[in-house]
Amino acid sequence: MIDHEVRVHRSDEQLPREQQLAWKIAEVAAERIEPTPEVTDMVINRVIDNAAVATASLGRAPILAARSQAEAHPVSLGGAGSTVFGSPARTSPEWAAWANGVAVRELDYHDTFLAAEYSHPGDNVPPLLAVAQHLGRSGADLLRGIVTGYEIQVDLVKGISLHAHKIDHVAHLGPSAAAGLGTLLGLPADTVYQAVGQALHTTTATRQSRKGEISTWKAHAPAFAGKMAVEAVDRAMRGQTSPSPVYEGEDGVIAWLLDGPEARYTVPLPAAGEARRAILDTYTKEHSAEYQAQAWIDLARRLGTERPDLRDPARVTSVVLHTSHHTHYVIGSGSGDPQKYDPAASRETLDHSIPYIFTVALQDGAWDHVASYAPERAGRPDTVELWRKVTTAEDAEWTRRYHSPDPAEKAFGGRVEIELADGSRVVEEIAVADAHPLGARPFAREQYVAKFRALAAGVLADEETERFLDVAQRLPELSADELSGLTVTPLTDALAAHPVAPGIF
User: Assuming Cys at both sites, which of 157, 271, 281, 284 could form a disulfide with 117, CB separation 3.0 to 4.6 Å?
Assistant: First the structure.
């Protein structure tokens, strides 16, 4: 890997494009590198993972709304169209990227990477799959594109913090998806460079979408970034140019949205000829909740099973989760969001409330993507009483481990201290989730397949489940025609049963 220093340049410095971060990203995307077997295996895992969580969300309102929008846009003239999960119709690729992106993100249940910034790298897959289907590309082409998308997103997340300035993390997704599309389509570096610039310029937004009462836009934000990436690549292929230098300009992203004119960042990118392995640094979720909650769910399940008395609010005086800065301030009591303790809060809000999540996992000894968020579950009196005794506190050591560049030391958990009414205390800690590569039960192909089957149960016919798994696991050898099989047809059409209100389209 090569570390690239990125800083703001005055306009009179005339920074050559070959020295700009967007160009260096484009060079990575333009180089044809065959994935290693280990990387190929992980891409297949994540294609299965994305499809699993999309399948589980097909009947949810945001997915139905996005799908109905996509279906209003027929196949565009340049190709055969793209499939939409749960839909019998093909649509224009940017709208398929939109609808499938919402389906993948809705349950907050797919892969993650956390470093200077945080991300869901699997969000790269919907726009890449849509364009590959539309333009008749092969499974091998799609595979290479996905590898690039993961590589660029992970490298940007390692080097540039967005959340420190309340910029939403999908600002890294626009460029990574554009770069992945460049690899998929075999575009030259100068075209990818323009697409990366446009994608970044159009996908910067504030983090209010993940603050307070969290709305359905949380699932739409990455889908919008993917859609913008498709459109940016289309414009760049037609010879249209972009704001430049988009990162380093004196009126650019770094100068005005991030650390300012004196900022300096270091972004690692692969050297020429180097294998793209960033996907191997990422990790998926066993539970449908914010990633920083994964380890806490596992610890709470265990504690509740071993010590049933901890489930009784009358027996508990206080519960303090000592954890990282990010966990405390984003999903913990450090956020200052009263909604994180509100039984009537939206599912999206409860998904970002570690006090709620820890309480329910402790009491139930389990976590379910539907039942654990049900209004009747959130409003149970004994749960509300215990929930309001749970707070978080930043711990410097857990913050340091959260940001550690050493994968063996990097951690997303913390230490729980429970004070009981009888004066006794329970103190336990957990570093990583059970499903993490360094956890108690790391996910491998078997677990990804099991997750798909579990989430597809009752939604897909058994033969449809097995058909999809067969197609997905043959990804590198799929022909263009076979690539259309990377979608699912449910037992019942949720949109037909629950039509959404009409909009403009």
Answer: 157
Q: Smallest Cα–Cα separation from 432: which of 461, 398, 459, 477?
A: 398
The parts of the chain modelled with pLDDT lower than 70 are none
Report yes or no: 241 and 191 within 8 Å, Cβ to Cβ.
Answer: no
287: left (phi over 0), alpha (psi -120 to 50) or beta: beta
Site of tokens 């519960």: 319
Number of Cβ within a 10 Å radius of residue 374: 12
Greatest distance between any 2 Cα atoms in the chain: 73
Helix segments in 239-293, DSSP class H: 253-257
Q: Which CATH superfamily is domain 291-430 in?
A: 2-methylcitrate dehydratase PrpD (3.30.1330.120)
Is residue 176 within 8 Å of residue 224, measured between CB atoms? no
HSE, CB side, 13 Å, CA atoms: give it for residue 175.
Answer: 28
Residue 7 phi/psi, 5° resolution?
Answer: -145, 170
Dihedral sign (CA 194, 197, 200, 202): negative
DSSP state of 388: T
- Mean per-residue pLDDT of the chain: 96
Q: What is the pLDDT of residue 212?
A: 76
SS3 475: helix
Inter-CA distances, 87 with 52, 70, 129, 458, 494, Å: 16, 10, 15, 17, 9
Instruction: Give the residue extent of every domain in the chain.
Output: 2-281, 291-430
> What is residue 282's three-state secondary structure?
coil
Look at the alpha carbons of 477, 480, 481, 482 in this order and tell me if their dihedral is positive or negative.
positive
pLDDT at 241: 98
Q: Encoding tokens for residue 38?
A: 């280990």
CB proximity list for 344: less than 8 A, separation 6 or greater: 375, 378, 379
Return the structure tokens found at 208: 């209010």
3-class state of residue 414 by DSSP: strand
Superfamily for domain range 2-281: 2-methylcitrate dehydratase PrpD (1.10.4100.10)
Tell me the per-residue pLDDT of 252-285, one tens digit each, with 9 for 90 and over: 999 999 999 999 999 999 999 999 999 999 999 9
pLDDT tens digits, 83-116: 999 999 999 999 999 999 999 999 989 999 999 9
SS3 letters across 421-455: CCCCEEEEEECCCCCCCCCCCCCCHHHHHHHHHHH
